Amino acid sequence: MIVSLTHMMTLSFVLFLIGLAGIFIRRDVLTVFLCVEIILNAANLAFVAVANAFGDEFGHVAVVTIIAIAAAEAAIGLSMVIKLHSDKKSMNLSSLNELRG
Amino acid sequence: MEKMILLAVFLPFLSSALIGLWQLVCKEKAQNVAGYIACASILVSFVCFAMLSNEVWSSMSTLRFELGSWISLGDFSVPAALSFDKLSATLALVVSGIGFLIHVYSLGYMSHDENRAKYFSYLNLFCGFMLVLIQASSLPLLFVGWEGVGVCSFLLIGFWYTDKEKAFAGRKAFIVNRIGDAALIVGMALLYWVAKTLDFSVLQQADTITSLTQLSSPLLLECIGILIFVGCMGKSAQFPLYVWLPDAMAGPTPVSALIHAATMVTAGVYVLARMSGFYVEFAPHALSLVAFVGATTAFFAATIAVFQKDIKKVLAFSTVSQLGYMMLAMGVGAFSVGVFHLVTHAYFKALLFLGSGSVIHALSGEQNIHNMGGLKTYIVGTTVLFFIGFGAIIGFPLMSGWFSKDLILHSLLETGHPMYFIVALISAFLTTIYMTRLCTVVFLGTPRRSPDQLRTIHESPKVMLVPMGVLALLSIVGGMPFLSVEHSLANFFPTLEVEHGIHVNEHLLGWSVTFVVLILVGLSIKVFSKKRIMAQSGLASFFAQEYYINRVSVGLGSVLMRVGSSVSQWFDVDIVDRIVNFVGRELTLLSKMQSKNRSGKPQTYAAMIVFGLLILLFCVAGV
Predict the structure, then answer these.
(1) Would you say the pTM of this structure is higher than 0.80?
(2) Which residues in B153-220 belong to E strands, given as ranges?
(3) Burial class of residue A26 in the structure, from the number of CB atoms within 10 Å of its CB (0-12 exposed, 13-18 middle, 19+ buried)
(4) pLDDT at position A47, please?
(5) How far apart, in whole angstroms, are the C-alpha atoms of residue B198 and residue B201?
(6) A53: helix, strand or coil
């Protein structure tokens, strides 16, 4: 079975929806952070798929760049999670409501 | 040549800046040397102008020096250019020549002042700006010089600013001149609007003139002429904007001689001469307004001068009156005659002011003429020189004032203005009366000072008497045909159409006027040496109070200012503030209402972002 562009884009879209749903549903900061990563990779997948289908190397280059930057982003994100845990003694997202009007 | 005119115009600026900075750095050392630097710079400037004048004098040519572009905004461009022709040459020689003499005089007059370096810095700056005004090739550049001399006038009137009244006089001069300057700016803007140029030489060109006549309404052009003249009224102290000039006498006397008699106050006359082509071609009615204002000023200022008791105030009103004379000559189209009187007046009025300065110096600051008297035996040199100035201003035969005043009277008849002729004639007689009164009360008769005070009277030093001597020489010979600028300037100016000229024999007129003047001198000496006319009785105090014009206009000014300020305060507090406060308050309320809806939960914000993205997506897809 040949994996077509449609399959790949569908997979990418499904991954995106999973990530989005995770962000909305879960209360745990770490899981939400994981879901953000899933969305990021859904986008990466779409890039690769389109680049492959149209024979354009730029998509690959973009993906490699995104992965490299995502590594840095993950480091910052995780350190924020740790800081949050030490300040609030909780990993629950609903405890972060200081901007409430 | 180009370098020379640059040197001549900018050397005074340079030395002014040098002295100014130097006296800031080391105050004591600068005081003694500053005067010599200032004198030297003006002397070099004068020599340069003398050489340049040689160039333009014999021909009608104009030397033009482009210094580059000054303002360039779309279509509007003003080049920084200096032009030098016969008219500018005449004025430049007067300004730098008399300027030099008065600088030298100041060396003596200001020798006891501890801020004399600052004084010389200002005086140099004034000469620089005056030269820019005269050499400017376009109205905006002229305006730079115009405002510059205004600033210097303000600085020098209020030079002894610790005296509140003197500081106030400086402010008054500045504020009254604002009225004229505002009119000048509006006139300038309108002129640019219709003519698309402000360059004097372009304005005179034939195709500009034809396009102006085709495009613009005559009324608008007349308005421009009147607005520019209102500017001249402020600077040249014409009724009713003269009120600042008598107060300007608060400054040091050499300043009164240079700025408020010989040069700056004649700037208005110069502008009219410079714009004579425009006035003759497009604004003949504005020109008749000039004549009317000039005649009014000449007459009324002369009547006021008769009743003043401050030696400098008499001369100040005399200056106002003589400026009216010049304006009158300009107004009837006798431009070269007006400029000629400007030059001779600069000689003798500078001399008279320097003479009065010498008297004040001799009496250690006394200015009331009723406290003087019989000074001729104490200060012989000053007396002789002052009487030479006196002879020139009343028109003693063959002295400079005799030539120029007779030419004005003659041209008034030639151009068909018998009414103005009579007014000018009466003004000339009044001039004789007040000048004779001044000389009689100050120099003749018996001394009215106590013996103790008389012992302290001292003649001024040579450094003051020599410049006065040179000016006296110029006052004597300045009008002689071989020195007369009138003749060589005659074909420089356009001529106004004359409708009903009255032709009289020039010599007959001149000598008969002189005859009456000399009789008046004799009569006045008799009258004034016997009794002192004090400004007490009704009519006399009416004259002495300047017909209450000064009081009324100052009162009107302050009333207007109070009304204006309370109106703008009301507008600010009750309208602007209310609007601003209303907007601020309502916005705060709105945002408080909005903030209730904010949960502060990250997931709500994420949902909002996604929702917004979806809307965007639909919009893009829909299009």
Answers:
(1) no
(2) none
(3) middle
(4) 92
(5) 9
(6) helix
How far apart CA B181 and CA B235 sit, in angstroms, is 8
**Chain B residues within 8 A of A33 when measuring between CB atoms:** none
Among B140-149, B152-161, B201-210, B607-616, which stretch is predicted with the lowest mean pLDDT?
Answer: B201-210
Shortest CA distance from B594: residue in chain A:
A101
Q: For B567-597, write each residue's pLDDT tens digit.
A: 999 999 999 999 999 999 999 999 888 887 7
Confidence of residue A28 (pLDDT cuts 50, 70, 90): confident
Cβ contacts (< 8 Å) between B602 and chain A: which residues? 32, 93, 96
Check if A81 contacts B (Cβ < 8 Å): no
Distance CA B484, CA B479 (A): 5
Burial environment of residue A57 by CB neighbours within 10 A (0 to 12, 13 to 18, 19 or more): exposed
First vs last C-alpha separation in chain B: 72
Are B599 and A100 an interchain contact pair (Cβ–Cβ within 8 Å)?
Answer: yes
Residues in chain B whose Cβ is within 8 Å of chain A: 594-603, 606-607, 610
Q: What is the mean pLDDT of chain B?
A: 84
Best probe of the A interface among B589, B593, B597, B601, by most A CBs < 10 A, is: B601
On chain B, the residues whose CB falls within 8 A of the CB of A99 are 598, 600
Angle subtended by helix axes B164-195 and B139-157, to nearest 10: 170
A 2-41: CB under 8 A from B: 20, 23-24, 32
Q: Which of A20, A24, A98 sits opposite B600 (nearest CB)?
A: A98
Rounded Cα distance between B292 and B14, Å, is 42
Quick check: B372 and B363 in contact, CB under 8 A? yes
Q: Is the ipTM of this complex over 0.85?
A: no
Both structure tokens of B281: 């071609």
The CA dihedral of A91, A94, A95, A100, to the nearest 10 degrees, is 150
